[in-house]
Write a structure and sequence with these properties.
7-stranded parallel β-sheet
């Protein structure tokens, strides 16, 4: 895990993402975006780099068909104009349950990996004020993650969007080849400190998984 602290962290993170795509050239890529501030990185990325070898989806989702809430619809909007892209759709469909959608995304990722054994999985990831990462909230029952790449669960009434679908710790740890992590704002200082601390639990601070990932690069404007 590397960390870059700079007032222009957003610009540097976007540049790093662009460099990743240039590096893999025509190799198959599964690109998974987080929502929120990580999604905003795409404002500074030239969509020309999104070529037909790239399959796009989101690494966490909210159970909604509302474009103001659904991360996939926001991602597709950001990449409007990119040609010949492949998608892992995570829009709520009629009759969908939380488990249905999670299983569908899980199956899509596994099918991509089977079809592209030498392809690369790249993700943009954010960290919440509470230390959550992707859609993994603190102190949830991790049994829902057993033998899964993607899990759906109810994060409870304290969460603005309680019905969540998220990549699991196992997927982040073992299957994401490169991750660009963007953490912005003084309100996230404590969460960043917990991520970088010598000790701490994944249950309390899910974002500590960044330290166990293959290649995670943090960009932050927190000095």
């Amino acid at each position: 895990m590397e960390i870059t602290r700079d007032n222009n962290a957003k610009k540097l993170a976007a540049r790093a993402l662009g460099d990743l795509f240039k590096k893999v050239k025509s190799a198959p890529v599964l690109f998974l975006s987080s929502g929120g501030s990580s999604l905003s990185l795409l404002e500074q990325v030239d969509i020309v780099i999104f070529s037909p070898n790239i399959t796009c989806g989101v690494i966490d989702e909210r159970l909604s068909a509302d474009p103001a809430i659904n991360n996939f619809l926001q991602l597709r909007g950001r990449l409007f104009g990119a040609t010949a892209l492949n998608w892992v759709d995570s829009v709520l469909q009629a009759g969908d349950s939380l488990v249905d959608m999670a299983d569908r995304i899980d199956s899509s990722w596994r099918a991509w990996r089977k079809d592209n054994p030498n392809g690369k999985i790249t993700a943009t990831i954010g960290v919440g004020v509470d230390g959550h990462v992707a859609g993994i909230m603190p102190n949830i029952d991790l049994k829902i993650f057993d033998n899964k790449w993607v899990a759906g669960y109810d994060a409870g009434p304290a969460n603005k969007f309680p019905l969540r679908i998220t990549a699991t710790f196992e997927f982040l740890r073992s299957h994401v080849d490169f991750a660009i992590v963007y953490i912005s704002g003084e309100e996230k200082r404590r969460a960043l400190e917990r991520v970088l601390a010598d000790s701490g639990s994944l249950a309390e601070t899910p974002a500590r998984i960044l330290g166990e990932m293959k290649n995670a690069k943090i960009f932050t404007d927190i000095s």
